[in-house]
Amino acid sequence: MTRSSLPIAVALAASAGLLLTACGGGGSDSSDKIQPSGTVTTAAPTATTASPTQAAGPNAPKFDLPSGITTDFKGFDSSDPKKQAILSSAKYAALSILEFEAKVYTKETPNFKRFWTGAHGATFADSIISQGKDGSVITGDYPYYNAVVKTLQGGTGNVSVQYCEDQRKAYAKDSKTGKVTVTTPSLSDFRLWTLLMTKSPSGEWTVFDHTWVQGAKQCQVA
């Protein structure tokens, strides 16, 4: 599956390596609609009420993900406290996208607004809201892996976090009928994200820009 995307997410991720210097690592925009080819529409399983997902750590957010969505984060841990804080915020930013796309909203969710800031975050939010106007939401499995933290050049203190996402078992769902569109797995299901992050006045890391590359071979796994 591929979810709908912002037009600005084009080539920045491909050139991001030219802009960054390594700071360390642990292991780019939101979503295109399901491709019509190779799809099968199925009835969704009986929905159950899921408890909000509680992230670990002080002041950690809770995410209200439906029971049909599962996540797995590998490589988002570090023994370095600063790097761990960055990786945790990157994880929360990814979860806030899933939470936002899992239901139809008419405004930003609190978690999305917390981790996606500025004009870029507002534009991203508008694209997700627009995506949901036709009743299209998401379901399925979302593994994230190979997270790498780098420092942006220029002495600003800002960083990037690059990581992979596997959408082979991630699907679009009609929020009104519950029908799920199942797609045939392919290279296009592997996405390489690059989040550009800054430290907020409150001391939390937030995303001020991002890009993604769809069909990223470096993210392909068996």
Give me the secondary-structure topology.
Blueprint: H1 12-15, E1 20-25, E2 39-43, E3 53-54, E4 62-63, E5 69-73, H2 81-101, H3 110-115, H4 118-132, E6 136-152, E7 159-166, E8 170-174, E9 179-183, E10 190-199, E11 205-214
Parallel strand pairs: 5-6
Antiparallel strand pairs: 1-6, 2-9, 3-4, 6-7, 6-8, 7-10, 8-9, 10-11
Produce a short descriptive summary.
With 222 residues, this protein is α+β, with helices and mostly antiparallel strands.
Can you put this structure into words, describing what you see?
This protein has 222 residues and is an alpha+beta fold. The chain has one domain: Nuclear Transport Factor 2, Chain: A, CATH 3.10.450.50. The protein contains four helices and eleven strands. The protein has helices at 12-15, 81-101, 110-115, 118-132; strands spanning 20-25, 39-43, 53-54, 62-63, 69-73, 136-152, 159-166, 170-174, 179-183, 190-199, 205-214. The strands form two sheets. Strands 1, 2, 5, 6, 7, 8, 9, 10 and 11 form a nine-stranded mixed sheet that branches.
Mean pLDDT, rounded to whole units?
A: 81
**Portion of residues within helices:** 10-25%
- Per CATH, the architecture is Roll
Based on secondary structure, the structural category is alpha+beta
Number of domains: 1
Name the poorly predicted regions.
4-51
Count of alpha/pi helices = 4
Radius of gyration: 17 Å
Order of helices and strands: HEEEEEHHHEEEEEE
Please give the largest β-sheet. 9 strands, mixed
CATH class: Alpha Beta
